[in-house]
Design brief:
Length: about 240
Amino acid sequence: MPKIVELLFDCDNTLVLSEELAFEACAELANEILAKYGKSARYTGPELMQDFVGQNFRGVVTGMETKYDFTLSDEEREGYVKAEEDRVIKTLKAKAQPCVGANEELEKLYKSKKYGMAVVSSSALRRVVASVEKVDQAKYFPKDHIFSAASSLPKPTTKPDPAIYLFACEKIGVKPSECCAVEDSKSGTLSAVRAGIPTIAYVGSYHDPSKAKEVADMLVSNGAKVVMNHWNEFEKCMAEIEAM
C-alpha cells in the first residue's frame, strides 16, 4: 500500500455528534413535505435517521419522492434544502458536541504534522463549517480542505456517490490510495471505498454495544478495513491500515 499522507474525516457522528440533532430538525420538514403532498406517513428523527443516515437532505427528499410516489419541482426541492440547512445550523450552533475523544486526537495529529487533514461530508458546507466551529475543530483544517457533496461539486450529490472523495483528492493533490478515510455510515463507507480509499469504520457514536457491533460488521462487509470503537484507538487503527 502507498504511504498514507492525508486523512479524510466524515463530519456527522464521526467528528461531531450532530446526526441526531440534525435528523430531529429534518423530520419536522420532511413531515411538512409529506403532508403537503397528501401522504399519511410521518417520521420521527430516529426513524428518518434509520432510513437515510449518511445522506444529505437532498438525498432524503429524493428518497421520499421515490418511496412515496410524488415529485417536487426543482425550485421546490432546492427551497426545502435551503430551509432544512437553516433549521439544522441553528440547532447545531446551540447544541452540537464533539464525538468523545475526537478533539484530543485531532490535537495530537495536528501537532505531529504527520498527515494532512480534511473534512469530507455529504452535508451542506455551511452546516459542516458551523459544526466544526461550534466544537472548536475548525482550527485543525485548512478552510479550503472542508468539502461538501451538497455544496462543493459542480453538480450536487450525496454519499454513497464517490464523487466528493474523488473531488477532495483532486483538490488536495493526492491519490485516493494515499489517503485514509474515517466513516460511520454505510453510505459514507461506500463512498470512500468506491473512490479507492482505505477506510476506518468508526462506531463510537453508537451507545448500544450490540448496535455498535452490528454497524461495525455492516461497514466491514461494505469494504471498511478496520473498526475503531473510540477515538483513542485511532493510532492503532492507522498502524493496521499502514501495515496492509
